[in-house]
TrEMBL record:
It comes from the Bacteria. The keyword Transcription applies. The keyword Phosphoprotein applies. Keywords: DNA-binding, Phosphoprotein, Transcription, Transcription regulation. The modification 4-aspartylphosphate is found at D55. Residues 4-122 form the Response regulatory domain. It comes from Glycomyces buryatensis. One of its GO terms (biological process) is phosphorelay signal transduction system. Residues 150-215 form the HTH luxR-type domain. This is Response regulator transcription factor.
Length: 225
């Protein structure tokens, strides 16, 4: 199936470069572009792409607000959003992940990484590189008040589901969680689905953030390693 992509970036050369790279792939079609957040929202509504590559910093409306508006549309019309940034650690990207963006990618990443990221996100997975994403979230939370104790928000989870959420927060994949808990991968998938449903989470990126916000894990917690 062809992945329909919209590119939103205020630099014409960046848009053209990304478009040329992605359009050369047999399974990717670049359906349009946008030079600011307002255009990104309008063109997303008009063109209905599967995925939006969204620059964080743009004029008129930044990528964060544009992503918020796009991700608040009804589920049947909602594309995946992959944030682009020039900064390795960027508080804006944290907020985007919190809202439901599927991940972030550095603009200077190798071409192969961009192509792989588009395919991963379009397939429904969060682009969650554990080492980078955990460091991003840790650094963001170091500047925020540390939650006092475990949040009552977690009370809807069983003990096993809470354990699965903790392992997700450590960056483990489903097969790794299955090995850690000595259960089948299908059992893990079931637990993950229940965790997401009970806590209103869209993907693993939001799950990691939730684990920090509820006090299940804290910045510097040795259980991450």
């Amino acid at each position: 199936m062809t992945i329909r992509v919209l590119i939103a970036d205020d630099q014409a050369m960046v848009r053209a470069g990304f478009a040329a790279l992605l359009a050369a792939q047999d399974d990717i079609e670049v359906v349009g572009d946008a030079s600011d957040g307002v255009e990104a929202v309008t063109e997303t509504s008009r063109l209905r792409p599967d995925l939006v590559l969204m620059d964080v910093r743009m004029p008129n409306m930044d990528g964060l607000e544009a992503a918020r508006q796009i991700l608040s549309t009804p589920a049947e019309r909602r594309p995946r959003v992959l944030m682009l940034t020039t900064f390795d650690i960027d508080d804006y990207v944290y907020e985007a992940l919190r809202m439901g963006a599927s991940g972030f990618l550095l603009k200077d990443a190798p071409p192969g990484d961009l192509i792989a990221a588009v395919r991963i996100v379009a397939d429904g997975d969060a682009l969650l590189a554990p080492s980078v994403t955990r460091r991003l979230i840790e650094d963001c939370f170091k500047a925020r008040p540390t939650p006092v104790g475990r949040s009552s928000r977690l009370d809807v989870l069983t003990a096993r589901e809470e354990e699965v959420l903790l392992l997700i927060a450590r960056g483990l994949s489903n097969p790794e969680i299955a090995r850690d808990l000595f259960v089948s991968e299908q059992t893990v998938k079931t637990h993950v689905g229940k965790v997401f449903a009970k806590l209103g989470l869209r993907d693993r990126a939001q799950a990691v953030i939730c684990a920090y916000e509820t006090g299940l894990i804290t910045a510097g917690d040795p259980r991450q390693n």
